[in-house]
Each structure stands twice: as structure tokens, then as C-alpha cells.
Design brief:
It is built from 19 helices and two strands. It has 443 residues and is an all-alpha fold. It has a single domain, classed as Hydantoin permease, CATH 1.10.4160. α6 packs across α14 and α6 packs antiparallel against α15. The longest helix is centred in the last third of the chain and has 34 residues.
């Protein structure tokens, strides 16, 4: 898929994004392009912050173990959904119709398409605060510039996400390596010595750390079909997922953990393993690269989330993706400027409770459809909503009553089990139902 040139005007037209229909085989993209979309997404500064918080509380070895387990869980269910998306070409909203029903998918899609706007807003706020803390920029200036740039990237579409990933990943690898080198030089700690770092915090359990890793990509991971529907086949979709989990996500979390373990973080209990401060004060060239890194790295996350939101709401309302991206981008920017993104950690805990059960329902449904294809059920599929509610309820109970448990894992297991019990495989397939192309009543 490439941008086309209008023969009458000579202007380059933005390519089709297939918001309402499966991506046809002729428009599919190569493995490198699809993989770049996914591995450029989780390898970001925000995940380094979370990785540092985990290691600060658990120590380096236990922290990295929790990070690995969380990523393997993500790979398991995101991989299944990616395989299905690449096989059918369907985006998340179309994919959700099989599990939740032709009308029920609107509820699931609207919920997740709204949640990811919060992620977009968080990345804008993080852009402003990071540039302020490390380079002295105005917080508002950094946030506004970031919001405008990230929205513009999203409007271009999937091609821009792929190109941004190809820029963001090398920058992250190189600059995080340089930062760790400065941290080792200034702190006098060796990498070998960092292995003995036992942590200094007590606010996070091992299960809680696993839950944070899963919750961090529970929403966009569940919506993976928006990205991997562009792959040529199921195998390519799974390989693209593998590039994200555990590779890119694990590297980002691990870098943040190492920064804390070598003593390179000023306030690891709050700011985790954010390493940009280690790059400050080393000359104008490195400072310029640091600014480019902030916009490319955080912009990769923000634009992916805004793309999820715009494609999701486009599928629901019938409005094209690009106008929605502009409107939702403005909404996310306004939310960031109010400072709501500072309550992000509490919100992340809620994501770990409510989002993973949706993915579990989709995984069970896709595995069944792979073995025995069936038409999309009409209306609302009660079993799917009951499983979602049960998974969220038990995950919430685990969060409040058993703080050491991994909330997301509990939610996934319960939702999958309930969905299997309430929707036994039937010999007679339900009647097919056409998906609504515009908004439908939710009641």
C-alpha cells in the first residue's frame, strides 16, 4: 500500500485505511513494515519509567523476571488475536463482532477506543513534563507541540506509524545505551554489581509487577488487529507481535530497571527509570538528539493510540478515520493540559482490571472460529458480556483483597473460563448478521 497521486491535480492522496472493511490481500504490507509498527510502539520512555519502578520495589533479578512473565502473557493472547487479524484482514471492531455480536461489538469497541485516548493524553503530558524537567522547556509548550505533531502523524495513517517505528527504535537503543554508560561512569556501579541490587521500595508485589506489565498494553494489545490486519498472513502477524512482546516491551522495561539498579535515577520510586536526565549537560549535539528522541519516542506511542481510537470510532460511527483523528487528538490535548494524566498510575490499575477480560473473550472466540468457522451472531452475545463482567469483578476483587495477585491474569483466566462455560459449541451455527456501518443504539 502506497500513497497515490491524483492524475488531475498532481497532489499526493493519502492511502485507504479500510476502517469499515477487511484489508484486501492487494493492500497488505511486508513483514518489516508491519513489525516496525509493533516494535516501535512499546519501546518507549514511559515503559522505562515503569520498569524502573518495578525494579526499585523488587530488585533487578526479581523485577526482570516479573517483566518477562508479563510479556509472555501479552505475547500469548496478543499473538492469537494478531494471527486471526492477519488471516481475515479485520480491524478490532470487526473482530469483536464475532465474540460480542453485531451490535454488542459497539460497546466493546467504544470502551477501548475511548480508553486509548487516555494513553494518548498521557504521552502528551509526559512530553511536556519531560522536556520541562530535563531541558527547561515550558510544560505547556512541549505538550502542545507534541499533541499537534502526534496528531499529524496519525492522520497520515499506518504508513507513518511504520516509518516512525523505524526511527524511534534505533534512537531508543542508542540513547539508552549512552545514558546507561553515563550512569555507570557517574555512579561508580558496574553492570555486574547491578545484579545484586535488591530494591528499596515496598509498595509493589511480584504479582502486582506482572499486572503492571500486562495492563500497560492490555488496551492496544487487545486492539492489535488494527495494526496486524495489514500483515500478509497469520505467521507474519505473530512474528510482528513477537517483535513487541517480549522483545521491544522487555527492552524498554529492562532499560528502566537497569537505570535504577546502577543508581542513575534521581527519584526511582516516582520517576522510575526515566533516563533522559542522564543525557542532559553533555553538549548541544546530544541535547538536540535528546529532543528528537522525546518527540519520536513518545510520539510513536501517542500516534499508535490515537490511530486505535480513530479507527475504532470510525468503525462505530461511519465517519472516516482522519477527521476523527483530528477531533480526538484535540480532545486528548485538552485533557493533557488539565493535568489529568498525572493520575495515570491509578488509571493503569483500572485498566488491568477491566481490559484483559475482553482480550480473553476474543481469544477463545477466535480459537473456536479457526477450528470451526461460524457467522457473526446478531444482536448482543450475552455470554461474552457475562464473561467480561465476571473477569473484571474477580480481577477487581483480587486487586483489593489479594494485593500480591496479578489482577490481569486473574481477569483473563476467569473471563476465558466463564465464556467457555456459557457458550458451548453448537452444531447449528447462528444466522449471519450484517455489521452496522454507522452508530447503532446501545440499548
Amino acid at each position: 500500500m502506497t500513497d497515490s497521486v491524483d492524475q488531475h491535480t498532481g497532489r499526493t492522496e493519502l492511502s485507504e485505511e479500510y476502517e469499515h472493511t477487511p484489508v484486501p490481500p492487494s493492500a497488505r504490507r511486508g513483514l518489516l513494515s508491519v513489525s516496525a509498527v509493533w516494535f516501535g510502539f512499546p519501546m518507549n520512555l514511559g515503559n522505562a519509567v515503569f520498569g524502573g519502578v518495578i525494579v526499585y520495589n523488587l530488585g533487578l533479578v526479581r523485577g526482570l523476571t516479573a517483566i518477562l512473565i508479563g510479556n509472555l502473557v501479552l505475547f500469548g493472547y496478543v499473538g492469537v488475536l494478531s494471527h486471526a487479524a492477519a488471516r481475515t484482514g479485520e480491524n478490532f471492531s470487526l473482530q469483536a463482532a464475532g465474540a460480542f455480536g453485531a451490535r454488542g461489538r459497539v460497546i466493546a469497541a467504544a470502551f477501548l477506543a475511548t480508553v486509548v485516548i487516555g494513553w494518548f493524553s498521557f504521552q502528551i503530558g509526559l512530553t511536556g513534563s519531560t522536556l520541562h524537567q530535563t531541558l527547561g522547556w515550558s510544560t505547556w509548550t512541549g505538550a502542545v507541540v507534541g499533541g499537534v505533531v502526534y496528531t499529524a502523524v496519525t492522520v497520515v495513517g499506518i504508513r507513518a506509524l511504520s516509518l516512525l517505528g523505524l526511527v524511534a527504535v534505533p534512537l531508543f537503543v542508542v540513547l539508552s545505551g549512552v545514558a546507561i554508560g553515563f550512569g555507570l561512569q557517574d555512579g561508580g556501579t558496574s553492570l555486574g554489581g547491578a545484579l545484586s541490587y535488591g530494591g528499596a521500595g515496598h509498595a509493589l508485589s511480584f504479582g502486582g509487577a506482572v499486572g503492571i506489565v500486562i495492563a500497560g498494553f492490555a488496551d492496544s494489545g487487545t486492539m492489535t488487529a488494527d495494526f496486524t490486519r495489514w500483515a500478509k498472513d497469520g505467521r507474519s502477524g505473530v512474528i510482528a507481535t513477537l517483535c513487541a512482546f517480549p522483545f521491544a516491551n522487555g527492552v524498554a522495561f529492562g532499560v528502566g530497571g537497569i537505570v535504577v539498579a546502577i543508581g542513575g535515577a534521581v527519584n526511582p520510586g516516582v520517576d522510575g527509570g526515566g533516563f533522559l536526565g542522564l543525557l542532559a549537560g553533555h553538549g548541544p549535539l546530544l541535547t538536540a538528539f535528546a529532543v528528537l528522541f522525546v518527540f519520536a519516542n513518545l510520539g510513536s506511542v501517542a500516534s499508535h493510540c490515537l490511530y486505535n481510537a480513530a479507527v475504532g470510532w470510525s468503525s462505530i460511527t461511519g465517519v472516516r478515520m482522519r477527521p476523527l483523528a483530528v477531533a480526538l487528538g484535540l480532545l486528548g490535548l485538552l485533557a493533557a493540559l488539565t493535568g489529568v494524566w498525572s493520575s495515570f498510575l491509578d488509571w493503569l490499575n483500572l485498566l488491568g482490571v477491566f481490559v484483559p477480560p475482553i482480550g480473553a473473550v476474543l481469544v477463545v472466540d477466535q480459537i473456536r472460529r479457526r477450528r470451526s468457522p461460524a457467522p457473526v451472531p446478531a444482536g448482543y452475545r450475552t455470554a461474552a458480556f457475562a464473561a467480561w463482567a465476571a473477569g473484571a469483578a474477580l480481577a477487581g476483587a483480587a486487586h483489593w483483597l489479594a494485593p500480591g495477585a496479578a489482577d490481569a491474569v486473574v481477569g483473563i483466566a476467569v473471563a476465558a473460563a466463564v465464556f467457555v462455560l456459557l457458550s458451548p459449541r453448537r452444531a447449528q451455527a447462528p444466522e449471519p448478521a450484517a455489521l452496522p456501518s454507522a452508530s447503532v443504539p446501545l440499548g
